[in-house]
Amino acid sequence: MFDLNNRDIMSSSEAAKRWHKADDYVRQAYRKTPWKFPEGTIRKFGKQLVVTREGMEVVTGLTEEEAANDEHEFLPKTNRTA
């Protein structure tokens, strides 16, 4: 039996948000490079793409936690003094 409440299974838009990517990141990645997703980590249901945590980690090269930390490295730093 599959647990559809498992946070390791998510819509493509939710995955993009959780990995701090553009809304259409997963759809574009799947359209351009479907072979990068390991078998069984992405599937289309009608018009909806569903992806697993493993699929996102392989395609992005980052865990969800690393993606959250990585986002902050690209924020501009200011040189203001207190």
From TrEMBL:
<protein>
    <recommendedName>
        <fullName>Helix-turn-helix domain-containing protein</fullName>
    </recommendedName>
</protein>
<feature type="domain" description="Helix-turn-helix">
    <location>
        <begin position="6"/>
        <end position="64"/>
    </location>
</feature>
<dbReference type="InterPro" id="IPR045403">
    <property type="entry name" value="HTH_59_Firmicutes_type"/>
</dbReference>
<dbReference type="Pfam" id="PF20038">
    <property type="entry name" value="HTH_59"/>
</dbReference>
